[in-house]
Amino acid sequence: MSVERHPGRLPYACGIVAPPRGVGRISAPWLVFGVAAGMGFAALETMGYAFTALLSSQGNIGAVEQTLFIRGLTAPAGHTAWTGLTAGALWALLASPSVGRLFGFIGTFLGVVVLHTLWDTFSGSLVFVVLAIISIGWLFWTLHRYKTFSDQAVGRLQPS
Known about the structure:
Layout: H1 10-13, H2 28-56, H3 61-74, H4 79-95, H5 99-121, H6 125-145, H7 154-157
Helix pairs in contact: 2-3, 2-4, 4-5, 4-6
């Protein structure tokens, strides 16, 4: 079933509204969609930081390179992981509404807000490493919990 043949499904394909029960209940693709959206935001934010570094250093390219290097290392553990976690939890709630999933989404959202607040409040390599381990670990644990890797046979993932 494609969107071209069934234009009424376009809102579902875009993730705008919750699908009918039994349709698209797997949350992992939406977690990955959130990761992609977070990476896009992180790339734009990084360009802003690089431009600020260029202006504040009066044209020193070394400062820009350092900013880009640090942001490149930390981006997957920041907005990328946090947006993915939030998108996956939101889709899980929309695909199969329940009180447990509502609390799961609220908990995920609050956890992401706390991690972002800690990331912005503290400085230092050790703090960033600890927060990165927590964020990436939480992301992979969530992927595993959504049974992305364990329940799908490799043969079913390849086109026929």
